[in-house]
Amino acid sequence: MIVREAIKNNLIGKNTLFEHDDQYMAIMENKTGQPITGGDLLRQSVIYFYFCLDGKAGFEFGPHYSREIIGGKNYFFYNPEGELPFALTLEPGTRMAVLSISLQGIHKLFIESGEEIHFLKPENVNRKFYDEREISSSLRLVLNQLFTANLSDNTKKIFFQGKALEILSLYFSSRQPDMESCPFLNDEAIVRKIKHAKEHLLKNMDTAPTLKKLSKLVGLNEFQLKAGFKEIYGNTVYGFLLDHKLDHARVLLDTKKYKVNEVSGQIGYTNTSHFISAFRKKFGITPKKYLMK
Predict the structure, then answer these.
(1) Does the pLDDT value for residue 243 go beyond 80?
(2) What predicted TM-score, i.e. pTM, was given to this entire model?
(3) Which candidate, 75, 84, 77, places its Cα nearest to that of 103?
(4) Distance from chain centroid for Cα 156
(5) What percent of the chain stands above pLDDT 70?
(6) What phi and psi, each to the nearest 5 degrees, are found at residue 57?
(7) Rounded mean pLDDT of 107-119?
(8) Which of 43, 94, 124, 281 could cross-link 90 (Cys pair, CB 3.0–4.6 Å)?
(9) Is 2 exposed, middle or buried (0-12, 13-18, 19+ CB in 10 A)?
(10) How far apart are CA 186 and CA 192, in angstroms?
(11) What are phi and psi of 230, to 5 degrees?
């Protein structure tokens, strides 16, 4: 079965990257100064992923139900009951990627490990599923490449099919918080404070505060912040920050607009050689050689 949209989407800037067998992938971008709206459709027993990288978008499912998605978030939709039309509105400056795959197609990919994915369990086949998550830094890196890739026509299909598999792999392997294993996470107020700490780090990654200052800023003690952060994000506070910095550096290099020392400075390194060493350790290649590739 080929996943085709029954309602032709009239969103300005929509670009279908590939449509093959049971998979479909496209990117959308509103470069105008006004909101733009188009009709679309969630097909029966097809899994949909909407990734909002920047800006804000709204889903209107009839006159009585709507949802909003902001930059840095993604939605997962699965409806086995029937086709569901909706209107999608992109605010100015919004960038969004959409990936869809049939239930049969996802089963083929996870035939050995499908039992580990909640909605793939046999008892859940006929249940609706909806999920909202933050886009991880590693996933954001791949999604940005969908917008920046400059490929020849004969390599595009292979590239985007590979990216679709990479996106699915990162999405389903992302670590979800285990609310039972960390006592601090049973308190919603503490979870909000830990998320606030993460947001503050990302907004100030070139001048990141010390752990002591960050703890004080969000109203937690250092132990609460370290233990809770590791439980939610699967990394230490500054390990998470370093990963995000290096992923952002790779995105900047992909634009071909900056030299290595400029990227180093933009992500907060005062010593370019330290940046080169960290980049090589994470990606297995120096920034200069990455640029040459």
Answers:
(1) yes
(2) 0.56
(3) 77
(4) 21
(5) 83
(6) -140, 155
(7) 59
(8) 94
(9) exposed
(10) 11
(11) -65, -35
For residues 179 and 232, what is the distance between their CA atoms, to the nearest angstrom?
A: 9
Compare 66 and 275 and report the one with higher pLDDT. 275
CA distance 207 to 249: 16
Q: Determine how β-strand 73-78 pairs with β-strand 129-134.
A: antiparallel
The two structure tokens encoding residue 198: 């993460």
State how far the Cα of 88 lies from the Cα of 86, in Å rounded to an integer.
7
End-to-end CA distance of the chain: 37
- CA–centroid distance for 182 within its chain: 25
CA distances (Å), origin 249, targets 240, 267, 271: 14, 7, 14
Dig out the tokens for 235 from the structure. Answer: 């990394």
From CA 236, how far away is CA 78, in angstroms rounded? 33
* Backbone φ, ψ for residue 17 (5° rounding): -85, -45
Q: How far apart are CA 58 and CA 214, in angstroms?
A: 33
CA 126 to chain centre: 27
pLDDT of residue 33: 86
